[in-house]
Specification:
The complex is a heterodimer of chains A (239) and B (384). Chain A has ten helices and no strands. With 239 residues, chain A is mostly helical. Chain B has three domains: 31-110, Lipocalin, CATH 2.40.128.650; 112-205; 208-373, Methylamine Dehydrogenase, Chain H (7 Propeller). Helices cover 7% and strands 46% of the residues of chain B. Classes of the chains: A mainly alpha (239), B mainly beta (384).
Chain lengths: 239, 384
């Protein structure tokens, strides 16, 4: 079943697939790196809530771009580099796809839906006055829709929970996680037995599901933004 | 804030596009089944040659002619379809790695086989990445086709190896002197990294092995194993599911005079295909005539189906029939078989590469003729 699932996203070239303990993994060496890396990156993002600073994004952009010379086979490489490049790519992709849904996805969605409902009501004046009191009740929102509008922001652009400042230990932990995964994943694939095969299979499955959820969440954020804009422009054509 | 949001949206789009491009690029690798390896003959000398048939334009390219002592050979694609691996030889086993879609040089390796014996080549060689696995007597041998490095491990008894997309499987009779019962077989996987046999399961052997090996096949999802064995003159498929005997399907009754070989599972694991040779239904004209073809055995109990392909006019050469193999295309829609191994028992027009279309109810057969080797002249026959 897993093999069939991964056949949609991986060529499953058997000559480029790890087989720890004689068990062929469900995806190729590079995809093993990508999905295992994505699983670890997601875990780190959930736990550490990394702030997307310019340096953080530049570094992850570099990790992402490493796939260009390796993926196009401009540089000769073997199984280890294939897995390593997949890992880096996984970290890069997760860091970019995490930006919009981020750590406050539920608050954004709840707020957007709430505002769409509010704006669709017929008595605009009263609702506008009450909205500012109501919306904070959804929890964690730092600014009400009314305030946002007065400052030039539309409701769905409201910020999420206050972003915690990134501490040095968090950054070090994230870097350590990245470095450790770069060592552990290829080591398990190369020297591991059947338990390692099971662990890697679970990791790539979690990574695949995680990336899928991230893509869907991004689409959700985009759709919520689009619906909100459409609703507002329909109700306030002059604005 | 707006700037940050725009930046995030753009970066998210870049991330999503990169992921999409990666997935599209990775899934673009797929065996396309457009090129088929088969044994042919050199027009000038009649020597056996390794040839490739291109199904797109119907052309045949001969890749390599084998030396005169190389009349025993197996040719197989590497996993990535970029090389053709040819095993040949009679006393000394040679391994030739022919580049197909690459510019790398041809690699020729002499394998240490003469002192130890000769590997069982009745089934196609098992390949894991860049390594070829063979079992020579009790020694499981791995040959790195890039470096030529050879690794061996004594596994106690001779293994019959089966290459499979999910690894290499083996079959061997259990030694009753150790801890096994008589007439038991052991089926398991080969750990290619350290050349050991990993958790096997034992099957009560219904087989009394005759001159033909007990063949076995593993389904694509590895849940099912089929053992084709002969018991009291009756060949049957013993189907094991999750390591337990699930059903027994007679391949042929003794009265059928049907010889079944080389089973393969369909893509969904619900049907077995095998090659067969049986006495022709109308042997009046040729007393020793035999019919060769494909046997299709549904595992749900539905009746088997025979797809006849060609007639074998002389049974003196049926020993060579164990080379009469079939292969299933990666999309599971086509079967390919070749009659070259029975060349001396065939009419020239039956010497061909056959494709059986499994998508059609009438199992349409396409025949690609193979040029017969020139008949030996008096001058070419060596004086005794």
């Amino acid at each position: 079943m897993l093999e069939q699932l991964f056949s949609f996203v991986c060529g499953q070239n058997p000559s480029h697939t790890w087989a720890p303990g004689g068990e062929l993994l469900p995806c190729c060496e590079r995809c093993t790196g990508l999905y295992a890396g994505a699983a670890i990156a997601l875990l780190l993002q959930f736990v550490l809530r990394m702030r997307p600073t310019a340096r953080f994004l530049q570094l992850h952009g570099l990790l992402l771009m490493m796939m260009i010379p390796l993926g196009f086979h401009w540089v000769a490489h073997g199984a280890l580099v294939r897995t390593g490049s997949g890992l880096f790519f996984g970290f890069g992709v997760v860091s970019l796809l995490w930006l919009l849904p981020g750590g406050h996805l539920p608050a954004r969605i709840i707020h957007t839906v709430a505002e769409a409902v509010r704006l669709s009501r017929p008595s605009f004046g009263e609702t506008r006055q009450r909205a500012g009191k109501r919306l904070p009740a959804f929890g964690g929102l730092t600014r009400s829709a009314t305030t946002a509008r007065s400052t030039g922001h539309s409701g769905c652009e409201i910020s999420g929970p206050a972003v915690r400042p990134q501490t040095r230990p968090q950054q070090l932990l994230y870097a350590a996680g990245l470095a450790a995964s770069f060592v552990v994943v290829p080591a398990l694939a190369m020297w591991g037995g059947r338990i390692a095969a099971l662990a890697l299979t679970m990791a790539v499955l979690v990574g695949l599901i995680g990336l899928g959820v991230l893509v869907v969440a991004n689409v959700g954020v985009g759709m919520a933004w689009f619906i909100s804009r459409r609703t507002r422009s329909a109700l306030h054509p002059a604005r | 804030m707006n700037l940050n949001r725009t930046r995030d949206a753009v970066l998210t789009l870049i991330g999503a596009a990169a992921l999409l491009a990666y997935v599209l690029a990775c899934t673009s690798f797929s065996p396309d089944d457009r090129k088929v390896l088969f044994p042919a003959f050199e027009a000038a000398t009649g020597a056996v040659a390794v040839a490739v048939y291109d199904r797109d334009n119907g052309s045949t390219t001969k890749l390599m002619a084998l030396p005169s002592d190389g009349n025993l050979f197996r040719a197989v694609w590497s996993d990535d379809g970029r090389r053709v691996i040819v095993l040949s030889g009679m006393k000394q086993l040679r391994l030739t790695v022919l580049p197909f879609k690459t510019t790398e040089p041809v690699r020729l390796l002499e394998l240490p086989s003469d002192a130890e014996g000769f590997p069982n080549l009745i089934m196609s060689p098992a390949i894991v990445g860049s390594r070829l696995l063979l079992c020579v007597k009790t020694k499981l041998t791995s040959i790195d086709m890039e470096t030529g490095a050879v690794k061996t491990n004594d596994v106690g008894s001779e293994l019959l190896l089966l290459g499979h997309p999910r690894g290499v499987f083996y079959l061997r009779p259990v030694d009753p002197k150790t801890d096994g019962k008589e007439d038991e077989y052991e089926i398991g996987r080969v750990d290619a990294s350290n050349l050991t046999c990993v958790p096997p399961f034992r099957v009560p052997s219904p087989a009394s092995s005759n001159k033909f090996e007990p063949f076995f096949a593993v389904s694509p999802d590895t849940r099912r194993v089929a053992l084709l064995a002969n018991h009291d003159g009756q060949q049957s498929f013993y189907i094991f599911e999750d390591q337990k005997l699930a059903r027994t399907i007679p391949a042929a009754l003794p009265t059928d005079s049907l010889l079944v070989m080389h089973p393969r599972f369909s893509l969904d694991g619900r049907t077995l295909y095998a090659t067969f040779i049986r006495k022709a239904s109308n042997p009046a004209k040729e007393e020793t005539a035999h019919q060769a073809g494909i046997l299709e055995v549904p595992l749900d109990g539905a009746p088997s189906r025979q797809v006849p392909l060609f007639t074998v006019s002389d049974n003196s050469n049926l020993e060579a029939a164990n080379g009469f193999q079939l292969d299933v295309s990666h999309d599971g829609k086509t079967l390919a078989v070749c009659s070259t191994f029975l060349k001396e028992a065939l009419k020239p027009e039956d010497l061909a590469l056959y494709f059986v279309d499994l998508t059609r109810a009438d199992r349409k057969v396409t025949k690609i003729p193979i040029a017969a080797p020139p008949k030996p002249t008096a001058a070419s026959v060596p004086a005794k």
